Amino acid sequence: MHILKKPTWFIPDRDATDENIYRSRRDLMKLGIAGAATLALPTQSFSGTSPYKPLKHTKSDIYKGQDLDITDYDNASAYNNFYEFSLEKKDPKKLAHTLKPEPWTIEITGEVQKSFTIDINTVFNSFPLEERVYKFRCVEAWSMVVPWVGFELSYLLKKAGLTSKSKYVSFVTKHDPSMFPEQKGSSLFGNIPFPYREGLRIDEAMHPLTLMTVGMYGKRLPNQNGAPLRLIVPWKYGFKSLKSIVKIEVTEHEPISTWHRMNANEYGFYANVNPKVSHPRWSQKKERVLGKFFKEETFIFNGYKKEVASMYKDMDLKKFI
After folding, report:
1. Is there a contact between 233 and 138 (Cβ–Cβ < 8 Å)?
2. Rounded distance, CA 3 to CA 1, Å?
3. Which end of the chain is less packed: N or C, by CB atoms within 10 Å?
4. What is the pTM of this model?
5. What are phi and psi of 6, to 5 degrees?
6. Which of 18-32, 79-93, 181-195, 198-212 has the lowest mean pLDDT?
């Protein structure tokens, strides 16, 4: 008899905090710390400003790596690294209106049994979307905890069919200067070789924590958060979770990663969260969750050690950053 085992990060719906309750609780907490508000990063309550209706998704399977407060929607949607729009983290929300998330297609190709192209609306209407609460850690020592809505990348790769040459997965963002002003190459970031590219090893890509994300907080992704489709790999630094994906290519050899290509000493291909390995210009031992003032300890693999450490058991994590 085959016994199904729930993953270690699974919590049933009955144990998940109701959205209205956790938002009310956070509002009360804010009242209690009003005196320190001027010292903290800006925190606002959920305003539901996403222009889209709620997504059809499963809420019974909610995943999370650590028992942390969920970041307010307004913080999570207003403080973003999206270099196609700006170097400044608060600018993408103001500038991302130029991104047109529909129509949008995603090509799956390379070392697979069957290449194909899908429309984003096919994903919205027929893919098994579910909500997962993941901690998202950026290399600049800040983080956020978000209820993402998406599907496992492995679901898509299994549809394409893997081969003996399926060793890595490469991701490419959309290249369209009319949507992304920084792609015009006329500013400080003009030396970035757009389109943005990232990659994963095939076992990382097939891991159940790796999520192709189409929404957050129950609604479609805002433009500035990577609409209409982005990657979330919660045990890695945020630059691995690229946005606005148009192509997924399975390869035999390690693909080019944009930041690794530009500065390999600072941005490794693996980019696993590791407090013992400092960025050349700052420490990674502590992090600040958006909306909070005090820094917190950074955990190896961003708190997902139990789930992912076995993939790297024979690797020197200080060498293969």
Report:
1. no
2. 6
3. N
4. 0.83
5. -75, 145
6. 18-32
H helix or E strand, kind and range, residue 171: strand 168-173
Token pair of 272, please?
């696993």
Give the H/E segment covering residue 267: none
| Model pLDDT for residues 141-157, shown as the tens digit of each residue | 899 999 999 999 999 99
Query: What residues contact residue 314 under an 8 Å CB cut-off, 6+ apart?
Result: none
Q: Which of 104, 255, 281 is nearest to 176 (CA)?
A: 104
Task: Report d(CA 273, CA 8) in Å as an integer.
Answer: 19
Cα 143 from chain centroid (whole Å): 11
Task: Please state the rounded mean pLDDT for residues 39-58.
Answer: 54
Distance (Å, whole) CA 279 – CA 263: 12
Cα-atom radius of gyration of the chain, to the nearest Å?
19
Phi, psi (rounded to 5 degrees) for 220: -60, 155
Beta carbons of 167 and 86 less than 8 angstroms apart: no
CB 288 within 8 A of CB 137: no
Is the CB of residue 131 less than 8 Å from the CB of residue 147? yes
The pLDDT tens digits for 273-290 are 999 988 878 788 999 999
State the pLDDT at residue 261: 84
